[in-house]
Amino acid sequence: MSPFGRLLSTAREALYGRGIPRLKSTGDAPIIPIEPPQRVRFPIGGLVAVVAPGQTVEAGALIARTPEASRFQRRIHASLSGTVTALDAGEIVLEGEVPERPPVTHSEPDWILPEAIADTAREAGLIGMGGGMFPTYVKLSRVAPIDIVLVNGCESEPYLTCDQRVLEEHRDEVDCGTVLAMHAVEAGRGLIIDRETYYPGGYERLLISDVLGRVVPPRGLPRDVGVLVMNVQSARALHDAVCLGRPLIDRVVTVAGGGVGRPGNYRVPIGTEVGHLLEVCRVDLSKTAAILTGGPMMGESASPETPVTGGTGGLLALTAAERSQSLPQPCIRCGHCMEACPFDLPAAYLAESPHKAVLGCVECGACQFNCPARIPLVSRLRKAKAVVTAWD
Ligand code: SF4
Ligand code: SF4
Fold it and tell me: Is residue 177 within 8 Å of residue 239, measured between CB atoms?
């Protein structure tokens, strides 16, 4: 490890308390490659295809990018070697074969310019793999002074264990990605957080306040308090891009839930259809009441055609009993959310009826923690804040 690496440390502690059940039954399932799909599809809304129908492409080749003038740049790369079989303004479909990923040999560059790290992240199409999917290169561009990089391995959503497995099996690469991020923003410290926490304890504002005692302002970003937060798989992807020249073409996904015959943690090419995962993981649709991409709290309903993206941490096939255990129920007007709020905000009311008072919400999640109906109040409050902000 370089001199930077010596500034890297790990916070490993358990945070127990009230919360949503963790349900991490795949925590001991090692990462294995999924049986390769023969077809992958990529939504390209807002991007321009750089391939044509019928064209052959190699895995890793650039297939779509944002126009030069776009404020935020994105790149999409082929995750298999084959042919472009469909292309329109909304989607690129490729058919072919997924090449084997060569064994990862951790390597660290002797020396690299900070700007080159952000440039590499941009060209490799790196995005926030915790679900946010915000372009990584923007975070790595030195637009504000950053003194600490937090790599978030809390993975507080129930069921999901893919980040935990990446930390256990690919620690050198995550360490290296963390050090590269520190170097890119010239931060003096890096911290990999792998504490066990109940949902929503891994939420970045809570994490920053909990670990560092810094409060991100209501309309602010972690960088406003000198912090860069990255997901574990984003840190690993940064290592892959800088040290191995590998763009983002696959990720680790947890497949879990009572409807799954072969639950586990799988390395999945980006663009793989949910239908392929359902088939190879032997999902019993007769037992399944809900299919979600992501976790049960923030995930979204999926169809067989839904593709895995860089932000897809899980595919859940939940039984009716599991669904009622972890999915939100109707508000029972108990008032626990308001009692829990450090600012006495009526969270249930503000989540339903946007009002300027919602701008006082710091998205700490205390209301959500204490909601017996498991209503995802934080995401609803965040949406309400966006509505109120648009009024200005
Ligand atoms: S997230 Fe909930 S508890 Fe936290 S400030 Fe907002 S309304 Fe209050
Ligand atoms: S705690 Fe949950 S169920 Fe109770 S009033 Fe608030 S939002 Fe409704």
Answer: yes
pLDDT tens sequence across 236-277 = 999 999 999 999 999 999 999 999 999 999 999 999 999 999
Residues 296 and 249: their CA atoms lie apart, in Å, by 25
Class (C level, CATH) for 3-29+110-244: alpha beta
Residue 18: CB atoms within 10 Å: 8
Nearest bound ligand to CA 337? 2
pLDDT by residue (tens digit) across 277-330? Answer: 999 999 999 999 999 999 887 778 899 999 999 999 999 999 998 887 767 788
**Closest residue CA from atom 2 of ligand 1:** 367
Whether residue 219 contacts residue 388, with contact meaning beta carbons closer than 8 Å, is answered with no
Question: Global pTM?
Answer: 0.84
Ligand 1 atom 4: residue of nearest CA: 364
**Atom of ligand 1 minimally distant from the CA of 346:** 7
- Measured in angstroms, how far is the CA atom of residue 354 from the centroid of ligand 1? 14
38-97 belongs to CATH 2.40.50.100: yes
Pocket of ligand 2 (CB under 6 A): 331-337, 347-348, 371-373, 375, 377
